[in-house]
Q: What sequence folds into this?
């Protein structure tokens, strides 16, 4: 199969120019002016943007969590991702405490094998670091191509590790060429505040928010950065939401340390006033919670200043009946929100169109930086000869409205119901095959492949 995309505006992190893109098999073979080739398919992209497929390095598909499973499996989640222009995901394998990393990996392979439509990889979440887990780190990196290790400083009693385990893991990961990533919030403080609110009979979703104040995230982000500084491990903070945490990343930079930071689309555009809506606020019960307007300003500034490199989703959808598990107690509402399909279009509509970021920055934070940080560049996140032909053709002017009636995620509400958008993904090419063409889906489950990643240096 060969495809020639003609006359589009090709966007990379550093350039925008009108050019043609030639795809042969699964790879881009040429980019240039007036390319002519005898191809199977020509796409006229005049007036449209041609960009690398999006990379969302933070999703949870079919994940067992809080007594239920996230409602998108590998087929529905990757289909929805492709509709929105995301061609590569990184999901999280969760070690069960007391069991091996390999045991968890086999579970996730069972859930994903033969089911994905777009490409994907795994981070390994280490929830129990001990002598035998230590032995497995090298195997994950060298044999499985899993080079990033996620830690939780919260979810006490389920996923959280203590600081002794954290530094032990950091040393082992550093020795083997990997990266440690973190859900950075203070689990003990949060545990205390949840118990206090429950004792006081404060049980609505608002108290989910009030149980995780900014300081819980700022403190843990600082502590994590200090431990990473001490061990020298490449470090990455996932789903950063607030100014206090962001300032710790900036402080790390002041001592010449690089701590990578990811925020998620919802933290840039939604705020905590949504928790005032009684139980409806459960739609936005996620951890960390939505924050304040001043935090949004800090996050947009961080993207432009380069202290925040990635905009992900932390896609973790639950249907309304699952959210109702916590109708009488906020602490039982499954944490998470659906966004895998809308990340790119929301970032474009709210970010590029409203003058908050440039188009080049959009490509950087929605695609290229994640490929570089997580050891996939230039295979992914890149429009260049030799790279995987993961390409989106995007109409910057098309207006549309988000709704649960039209989205493709397996969830019966939209956290963005009625949002008016400008900018739409029109065609998506996934490793050389047309995946989405004008709202029609063309791939079969199983086309998506597991991507083994390279070691990481902590420099991009
Ligand atoms: O609320 C969230 N974020 N759910 C998914 C698990 C996590 O903490 O990333
Ligand atoms: Zn988290
Ligand atoms: Zn997450």
A:
């Amino acid at each position: 199969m060969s495809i020639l995309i003609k006359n589009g505006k090709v966007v990379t992190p550093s350039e925008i120019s009108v050019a043609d893109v030639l795809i042969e098999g699964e790879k881009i073979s040429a980019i240039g002016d007036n390319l002519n080739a005898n191809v199977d398919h020509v796409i006229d992209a005049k007036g449209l943007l041609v960009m690398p497929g999006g990379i969302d390095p933070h999703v949870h598909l079919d994940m067992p969590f809080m007594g239920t499973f996230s409602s998108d499996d590998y087929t529905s989640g990757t289909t929805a991702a492709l509709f929105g222009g995301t061609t590569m995901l990184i999901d999280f394998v969760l070690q069960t405490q007391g069991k091996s990393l390999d045991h968890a990996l086999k579970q996730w392979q069972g859930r994903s094998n033969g089911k994905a439509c777009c490409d994907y990889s795994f981070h390994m979440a280490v929830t129990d670091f001990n002598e035998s887990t230590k032995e497995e780190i090298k195997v994950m990196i060298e044999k499985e191509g899993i080079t990033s290790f996620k830690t939780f400083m919260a979810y006490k009693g389920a996923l959280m590790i203590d600081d002794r385990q954290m530094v032990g893991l950091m040393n082992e990961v550093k020795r083997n060429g990997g990266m440690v990533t973190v859900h950075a919030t203070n689990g003990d403080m949060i545990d205390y505040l949840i118990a206090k609110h429950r004792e006081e009979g404060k049980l609505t979703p608002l108290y989910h928010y009030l149980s995780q104040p900014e300081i819980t995230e700022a403190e843990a982000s600082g502590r994590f950065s200090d431990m990473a500084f001490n061990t020298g491990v490449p470090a990455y903070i996932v789903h950063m939401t607030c100014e206090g945490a962001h300032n710790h990343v900036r402080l790390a930079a002041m001592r010449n340390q690089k701590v990578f930071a990811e925020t998620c689309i919802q933290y840039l555009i939604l705020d905590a006033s949504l928790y005032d809506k009684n139980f409806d606020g459960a739609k936005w019960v996620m951890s960390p919670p939505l924050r304040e307007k001043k935090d949004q300003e800090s996050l947009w500034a961080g993207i432009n200043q380069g202290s925040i490199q990635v905009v992900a989703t932390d896609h973790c959808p639950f249907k309304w009946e699952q959210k109702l598990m916590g109708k009488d107690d906020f602490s039982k509402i499954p944490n998470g929100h659906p966004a895998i399909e809308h990340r790119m279009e929301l970032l474009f509509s709210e970010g590029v169109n409203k003058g908050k970021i440039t188009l080049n920055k959009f490509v950087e934070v929605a695609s290229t930086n994640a490929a570089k940080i997580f050891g996939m560049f230039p295979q992914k996140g890149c429009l260049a000869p030799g790279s995987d032909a993961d390409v989106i053709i995007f109409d910057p002017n098309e207006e549309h409205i988000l709704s649960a009636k039209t989205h493709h995620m397996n969830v019966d509400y939209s956290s963005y119901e009625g949002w008016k958008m400008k900018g739409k993904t029109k065609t998506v090419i996934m490793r050389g095959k047309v995946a989405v063409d004008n709202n029609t889906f063309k791939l079969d489950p199983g086309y998506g492949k597991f991507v083994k990643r390279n070691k990481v240096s902590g420099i991009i």
